[in-house]
Write a structure and sequence with these properties.
two-stranded antiparallel ribbon; 12 helices; alpha/beta; 8-stranded parallel barrel; single chain; 339 residues; 11 strands
Length: 339
């Protein structure tokens, strides 16, 4: 079969994968990408710390490599990310030995946005401007995460970043990206936040639902409810970091509890979750992208987090870069809708 996922599902949404320079070095990965994907995300190298490690110094090497690969192969890209509580360089929040002022931090963020967008704005169609800014467990009374960004600037930094991004790239899609935002209190807080941005005229085009899920979650009801609630705001939806672990979050934290071989019953359930995601998403014009957080099971961040060396087998292609049964089913599917 010569068809790829992008050929079958591309009328409904882009089909993407997150990559790094190591994965692109494998011929098998290159073959999978060219056949199946229409969009790429840079897994780590575009985050603030890796790309801007010291003031005035940028590390463009890995992002350039991936962006050039995307240009050469006529792939779209997602940009990831600007305002996030993790992987920030120490210099960003300091002025000498003191905490940086709000105005100085704004200037640094604005300069960073301008430089990154200038370099990759031709290939990136969608940017994760804000990432994981809500924490309903440990955040403030409105659910905002108490990050260094928030401590120094308050929630104004989110509006500032979105406005500056719109100035820098008027035609690109601006997204707020988060995890566990497909249900529960996090979804409700996200909806309130997005509604407040829209009501204030702040540019926001998209919600990113990361989709770091498990073999038994989410079900159809959860997916449909999330898509319908977010799309009711009039914004797009992108599933931005999908991987479906064979473990639930709290399972197997010690080596003795790891699966010694693939749990085939859970792999089967995992494949059902993937099929449900694609088929349900295709029914809603608001869904514009499904991106897996990695290409194949031979390399995934879940090999290191939340439990080091615990194999999760979370992707659509196995550790030998062979398509799983979900891919076969998806290639043979009759797509219900189109955007």
């Amino acid at each position: 079969m010569n068809k790829g996922l992008k050929d079958v599902w591309g009328r409904s949404f882009k089909v993407g994968a997150a990559v790094c320079k190591e994965t692109l070095a494998y011929k098998e990965t290159d073959d999978i990408i060219k056949k199946h994907f229409s969009s790429l995300s840079i897994e780590n190298a575009m985050k603030f710390g890796p790309i801007h490690p010291s003031e005035g110094k940028y590390n463009w090497e890995e992002c350039d490599l991936i962006a050039d690969y995307a240009r050469k192969n006529k792939l779209d890209m997602r940009g990831h990310t600007f305002v996030w509580h993790n992987q920030n360089p120490d210099w960003l929040f300091l002025d000498g030995n003191e905490e940086v002022s709000k105005n100085t931090l704004y200037k640094r963020l604005e300069s960073h946005i301008e430089n990154v967008v200038k370099r990759y704005g031709d290939i990136v169609y969608s940017w994760d401007v804000l990432n994981e800014v809500i924490d309903t467990d440990k955040g403030d009374e409105n659910g905002f995460r108490i990050s260094k960004w928030y401590k120094i600037c308050g929630r104004d930094v989110y509006e500032f970043a979105l406005k500056k991004m719109r100035e820098a790239c008027p035609n690109a899609k601006l997204c707020y990206n988060d995890y566990n935002n497909e249900s529960g209190s996090k979804m409700e807080a996200s909806l309130r936040f997005l509604s407040s941005l829209l009501d204030s005229g702040i540019p926001i085009d998209c919600i990113g639902i990361q989709g770091h899920w498990y073999y038994n979650f989410p079900d159809e009801k959860v997916l449909r409810n999330a898509i319908e609630r977010y799309s009711s705001l009039g914004i797009d939806i992108e599933f931005t970091e999908v991987d479906i672990s064979v473990y639930e979050w709290s399972e197997a934290r010690e080596v003795k509890d790891f699966f010694k071989s693939k749990p085939l019953d859970r792999i089967e359930e995992q494949q059902k979750r993937y099929y449900e995601l694609f088929t349900i998403a295709s029914e809603y014009p608001a869904v514009k992208n499904i991106t897996t957080w990695g290409v194949a099971d031979n390399y995934t961040w879940l090999d290191y987090f939340p439990v080091k060396d615990r194999k999760n087998w979370p992707l659509l292609f196995d550790e030998n870069n062979i398509e799983k049964t979900a891919v076969t089913k998806l290639l043979n599917a009759s797509v219900k809708g189109s955007n």
